[in-house]
Hints:
Layout (H helix, E strand, L loop, with lengths): L10 H28 L3 H23 L6 H24 L4 E10 L2 E16 L2 E2 L3 E14 L1 E7 L2 E8 L2 E10 L2 E2 L1 E17 L3
Antiparallel strand pairs: 1-2, 2-9, 3-8, 4-7, 4-9, 5-6, 5-9
Helix pairs in contact: 1-2, 2-3
Amino acid sequence: MVFGSPVRENKFLFIGYWFFVSFYFLFLSFALVIGMLSGYWIPVVIFAITAPLLFRVVYYFKTVILKRMTKKGIVMITGAFVVFTFGVIGATFLFAENLAVNVSKTVYQGNLEVSIGSLKGEYLVDDPSIIQEGAVVIPYQASVGDGSFTLVVERADEIVWEEDIIGASEGFIEFVGEESSYDIRIYTEQAKEVLVNLTYQR
Length: 202
C-alpha cells in the first residue's frame, strides 16, 4: 500500500494511521472536484503524490522513536505534520498560476456560453477549426462582475484578435481566417463572475 503498513501493536499509531488515510481520501475527493471544475490538475497531482510519501516518512520516524517519546510529543509531531502537509497543498492552490472555480460550459443551437465564478490566469473557451480561408465573424457577448479580462483569439501562439473586457461588452470577433485550428482564451490576473457567449453562424 502506498501509505505503508500500520503498526498494529500500538493503538495510537494504528488509529492515527487510518485517521490520516481516511482524511487523505476525503481531501483528495474534494481536490478532484476542484480539478474537474477548473480543468487544472497540477495541484491535485502534487497532493496525490507528495502526501502519502511525506506520511510514510513521518510515520516511520514516529514508529522508530516511539519508545523514547511521550504520547504528548507524538501528538505534537502528528499535528505539525498534518498542518504542514495541508498548508503546502493549500499554498499550491492559492499560488497556482491558473485556477478556475465554478465553471459552466453549455452549447445550444450554435451558441456557446461559458460562465466562471472565479478565474485566475487563463482559460480555454473554445478551439474552433477553420476549414476555409476568408473573413471570420463571430458575434460575442462578455461581462465580468469584478476585475477585468482579455478575450483573445490565437493561432499557433499568435494573437489574431483581442478585446479587453471591463464590465459588459458585446460586438464581433473579426479576423481573416486560414485553414487551421484557433484558440479562444480568457486571460486575467483575477476576475469573478466571468461570462462569455459566442454565436457561431450555422
